[in-house]
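2024-03-11 09:14:02 DEBUG pipeline.ingest accepted 1 chain
2024-03-11 09:14:02 DEBUG pipeline.ingest length=450
2024-03-11 09:14:03 DEBUG pipeline.predict start
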Amino acid sequence: MIRSVPQFISFATFLVFVLSCTTSFIATEAYDPLDPNGNITIKWDILSWTPDGYVAAVTLFNFQKYRHIQAPGWSLGWTWAKKEVIWNMVGGQATEQGDCSRFKTTLPHCCKKTPTVVDLLPGTPYNQQYTNCCKGGVLSSWVQDPENAVGSFQISVGQAGTTNKTVRLPKNFTLNTPGPGYTCARAKVVKPTKFISSDKRRVTQAMMTWNVTCTYSQILAQKTPTCCVSLSSFYNDTIVPCPKCSCGCQRNATHPGSCVEPDSPYLASVVSASNKNSYTPLVRCTAHMCPIRVHWHVKVNYKQYWRVKVTVTNFNYRMNYSDWNMVVQHPNFDNLTQIFSYNYKSITPYATINDTGMLWGIKFYNDILMQAGPLGNVQSELLFQKDEATFTFDKGWAFPRRLYFNGDNCVMPPPDAYPWLPNSGFRQYVSLLTLIMTCLSTIAVMYAYA
């Protein structure tokens, strides 16, 4: 029994280590190293009291640098703490009224214990609009368009209490866009918001304010990646494709209709018959099966500059990507000289390092990436100035380190598959199986002659 004590201690230590690693992973799965402080903050300001409740302004701030919410937009849900009802809304609407049978005269807008609210569509009559409303739930990213990164609506709540001490905060906030991906923390009471009049001569404040912070996790949004990267260069004829099965594999035998052949005579009927309410991609049949492919081509080498061509191709028959954006990490972005047909802004998550840039389309020109087909791609070229201390074409230096499309991390080819310089010599490829067998053979020989 004495001998078993050290073994028990060792096992307990190992178990604690495994659990701590697992806990750390779960806690940080929503952490984005390129946007560590990015989140969507929901601010709930009580503006005035009513006989049985209050009138509040609810505002969504998208503080994420490059992740936006595109059509069909956001939907915000919560659970009331008591028996609250929504009497009226301006700038938004609840998706369901619920059971309002207990009201005999005036019916509330929504009686559900767990309401879900959506934004109104563009073109809503002016008497139903509210500040920053009526965008169809679309929120731009903070870097791309900060003025349109805010959405709001006004809500009149009944049976809720009429003082700061009797009002109870809603619980279990959810934010869908329209699928999952965001996890919302508990509502937290903060200092009341102050409002400045248009002439800036008077300041008023809310009766009460609480905030809810929602963070994004790609793992929650979709189990498989949504984009991949292919590579090529002027100094090598090899075109490195997206890794096979980057976003899934073709399984037509067991899952018919998972992809569409571009030369199929029934292509139009298949696409038109697809479920319009489904946000699952219907992609063109490819080896990678990704809705989006980004191709990075090292095009020209000048004496003091070098040029790259970037092409984004849409393989998704179900979606037009509006207001798309792309984030690229490369050490030469600190010397970007010129960019053609894209907008650009540097993103510096860490003040001393300038190696990340955000690219997006020009409004009314190429800001909408059309669905799969002849118009389903956008192109641009980047001109970099060489830094003699770091510049090289060797060992894949000219290719991006990391690339995001619409906030999702894209699958990169393995480093040993990158195009290499002609004078780099013969490259030997050693498979994993060969390496394992070599190691096992070495161990067997050592054991035999030990």
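2024-03-11 09:14:41 DEBUG pipeline.report The longest helix spans residues 4-28.
2024-03-11 09:14:41 DEBUG pipeline.predict end
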